[in-house]
Each structure stands twice: as structure tokens, then as C-alpha cells.
Amino acid sequence: MKEPTYSSIKETREALRMSSKQLAKKVKKAPSTLCGLESREATGNITLQSLQEIAEQLGCTLKYEYIPKKPIADILLQQAIKQIKSELEDDHHQFTDDDIKTDASHLLNESKNLDW
User: By the 8 A CB rule, do 34 and 23 touch?
Assistant: First the structure.
């Protein structure tokens, strides 16, 4: 069975049946400071360093990642199409969508960076 994951300091601490006072002692912070860290985490105003230090004391690994909403290939193709249309300016209406998509594919194969 896969271990559950927890999305916050407080949720993890409570799952471990640890009081805020106990965790505060482990991270060498005053209980009020830990309470503040939990609040700042909830508002997105906490440093990764603080999260890492707390995760370590909770016996956890902090995982920080970007998860694309769409496949990266789709995002790249959409941006390449946008770039081709921009380069063609008003003339892009003279080309079919397939022509533009083909040019966008070539651009992706040839270019290291796209115009964003």
C-alpha cells in the first residue's frame, strides 16, 4: 500500500500525533514561532529553507516540483505556433493551420529558445 502524502506542516504533524509544542522543540523554535510558520505556510509566505528544516524533523522529504497543466510538448507547440503567427504578422491568414503547424514543428527542431 502506498504511503499517504501530506500537504502541510500541520497536517503532517497531526498525522504523526505530534503536538505543535513537540515539533517546536525538535526544530529549536518557540511554539509561537512554529505556529507562525504553520500560518505562513498556509498563506504561501514561508521559505523553502524553513520547509526543509521542518520536513527533516518530521522524518519527511520535502518535494518541490512544477506540474504542467498540459503536456510540455503541447505547450511548446502552442508557443511555437504563436511565434510563427507573430513573425508572419498579418500575413498568417494566407497560410493554412497545417502550414503554420508544420513551420512551428520545424522551429521547435531548430531553435533552442522560443519567444515568450
Answer: yes
pLDDT 10s digits, 35-67 = 999 999 988 999 999 999 999 999 999 998 899
pTM value > 0.90: no
Print burial letters for 27-62: b (CB count within 10 Å at least 16), e (below 16): bebeeeebeebbeebeeeebeeeebebbeebbebee
Q: Are the CB atoms for 48 and 37 separated by under 8 Å? A: no
- Crossing angle for the helix pair 31-43 and 48-57, to the nearest 10 degrees: 120
Contact 43, 8 (CB under 8 A): no
Distances 78 to 68, 69, 73, 94, 102 between C-alpha atoms, Å? 14, 13, 9, 19, 12
Residue 15 pLDDT exceeds 80: yes
**Using CA atoms, how far apart are residues 62 and 56, in angstroms rounded to an integer?**
8
Closest CA relative to residue 20, chosen from 36, 42, 5: 36
The per-residue pLDDT for 92 is 72
- List of E strands, the chain: none
